[in-house]
Amino acid sequence: MKKTKKMLAAMLTVTTLAAALSGCSGGNKTEESIEFTEAATTEAAKDTAAAGESGAAEAKDPNGDKPSPEGYGMLREASVSTIGSLNPLTYINSYASTQIKRSSMILYTYFPNEDYTFCELSGELAAEDPIKVDEEGKVWQIKIRDGVVWENGDDLDANDVYYTWKMILDPKLANLRASNFAKDAIEIENAMNYFEGKCSWEDVGLKFIDDNTVEIHTVKGHDAKEVMTHLAHPANCIINEEYYEKGMNADRTETLYGTSKENWISSGPFLVESWTNDAEITFKKNPNYVFADKIWIAGINIKVVEDSGTQLQLFDNGEIDYVKLGVDTFPKYEEDPRILISSANSVSHMCINTTNPNQPILANEKFRQALYYGTDRETLAKMTYNQPADYIVPTTHIIDLENGIRFRDTEEGKADVHENYSYDPEKAKQLYDEALAEEGIDSVTLTMLYNDTGVQTTASEYLQQGWKKVFGDSFELKLQAMPSSQRSDLMRSWASKPDSYEISWGGWVSTDLMPWNAFKYWTSYYSAKNEPFFSEEFDATFERANFGEDRFEDGVRLELVQSMEKQLLDPAVIIPVYESMDKYLKSDRLELTMKNWLLHNCGKIPLPIILDNMLKNSNLYLFPPQNFFRK
After folding, report:
1. Do the beta carbons of residue 266 and residue 288 sit within 8 Å?
2. Bridge partners, residue 388, by sequence
3. CA distance 485 to 373
4. 8 Å CB contact between 511 and 229
5. What is the pLDDT of residue 478?
6. Residue 267 class from Cβ within 10 Å (0-12 exposed, 13-18 middle, 19+ buried)?
7. How far is 609 from 600, CA to CA, in rounded Å?
8. Which residues pair with 322 in a beta bridge?
9. d(CA 576, CA 566)
């Protein structure tokens, strides 16, 4: 364990922060990594900070050597996304999960150590690590921490945990996150069978022991870290039975839980003080939070501001504390010392609906390969300030934690990074011609869905012209812009509506320290699949990498990660294009307490969580939903 901790600490110098949403712009490619940068104060930044402070005088800091009950200072944010719902069992986007974590409890989460050099997975609601009950590692008990309460003062104990587990798998509710809970880092006995109506609840490997103890039975043997990692996913935040039932409809297929302040109750570091969905939400410090003595900040205010130009104006006026930069604004601030640059821990790719009845050409492997080889990733990445990628596993993913080795730095990882990032227009044209001949057609017209944001607009318009240049006048790409949520809904409706889309942008995020688990999005059982890909070989490879008896043996997971990547790349199931880089301007009102911190072990952490973890507000330390910070 000591060796692992030392490697985590060493990795901090070369590992970038994970930022907000996939498919976002920006960044400069280096051979080693994209370094996270902290700015020195500039005169312009001082003026900006002064402008923000002159608007309204804050009360005197009541914090001393320890945080006061009410805390001090507000973190001010603006977001293009709305929360939609705080229900952890149904949320869709990472922005919603950020707010869920801010106001909810979870069994396990990630805490920085005393000197902030590495992070440790530890209990938040859980009082200790899981207790192994049997020799095989298939039965685990979890003890619940004493003294945890809901916002209204009611006890939060094992009853709430057990109720949450039962609701997430409820067949009638058909929750989006059910399959993720049933089988991710661990597979819970009969969980998916119950969700699919194939067995009774009594058969599920989830047991209530007493008010302070729950028990999990798994299909395969696991270690404690795998159990903790599984339960640290934001979708496993604990729900309140009274409020969940209060919002339930008559046939128990839907609940209003988490859709408004009236239908929500907090238990985490912050309470929802006010909330106008699609407009604004304000959090205040929760004095009854189990770690309230570590929270320095008084609250967080978030305004929904869809226009990026307006957000930048708010930042320049000192009304918000950081702002995300796009392809149109980054060049202006590229040399600004206040810039924060980080990998978004995601490879943006094109999803292909191979079962669309109106476009049988999409099922042709040679045609998909033509799109793959016909994509000029280097040019596109330069235009969008991203890193070209003809691979799926991001450069941030670590295959060997003990030795700090990233997958892309191994010989196996390098094998799927090709000359010109696989751009080969001659090969692409040949495959294109062969595919059309096989289908008996002489032209193709496709429609690509994309988010109405700067980076995807730029990338889509470039591909519209670039592919036509490669394939000739017989090819046409039409573009259809729409909000991200609408596009996601259309893509995931392919099973019930096969012609829902043809080609669209996608980009999953997952744990940096478990790249073998990041392929779950293409398994047959994943419930929120973007494309109709099903493969028994792929499923078997994933099973072995995540649950196989030999998975801990040297080189096994390395080989299997490479195999899964090739199984997606060779037939061009998806078409990777660029590794997303995120860029932000932060106010000098916010002081970073840590640099180059590998934040997580359970998936990508959005920038708002990063700020909660890493910033001091004026002279005040922020305490995040899952990390300790001390003065």
Report:
1. no
2. 578
3. 29
4. yes
5. 98
6. buried
7. 11
8. 586
9. 12
Residues 6+ apart with CB under 8 A from 525: 179, 183, 192, 539
What pLDDT was estimated at residue 61?
Answer: 65
Q: How far apart (Å, rounded) are the C-alpha atoms in residues 434 and 368?
A: 12
Q: What share of the chain is helix, strand, coil (3-state, %, to 5)?
A: 35, 20, 45
Per-10-residue mean pLDDT of the chain, 631 residues long, equals 39 28 27 26 36 44 74 88 89 84 94 68 96 97 97 97 98 92 95 97 98 98 95 95 97 96 96 93 94 85 91 94 90 89 87 97 98 98 94 93 89 95 98 98 97 88 97 98 87 94 92 90 90 97 95 95 98 96 86 45 35 34 30 24
Tokens of 611: 């700020």
The identity of residue 84, as a single letter, is G
The predicted structure's pLDDT at residue 509: 80
Answer for the pair 240, 247: CB distance below 8 angstroms, yes or no. no
- 588 residue type, one letter: D
Alpha helices for 175-303 (secondary structure H): 178-182, 191-195, 224-231, 241-246
Q: What's residue 124's pLDDT? A: 96
Question: What is the gyration radius of the CA atoms in the chain, in angstroms?
Answer: 24
Strand locations in 64-113 (E): 74-79, 108-112
Distance, CA of 306 to CA of 507 (rounded, Å): 21
Token match 């404690």: residue?
Answer: 224
User: Sign (positive/negative) of CA torsion 172, 176, 177, 183?
Assistant: positive
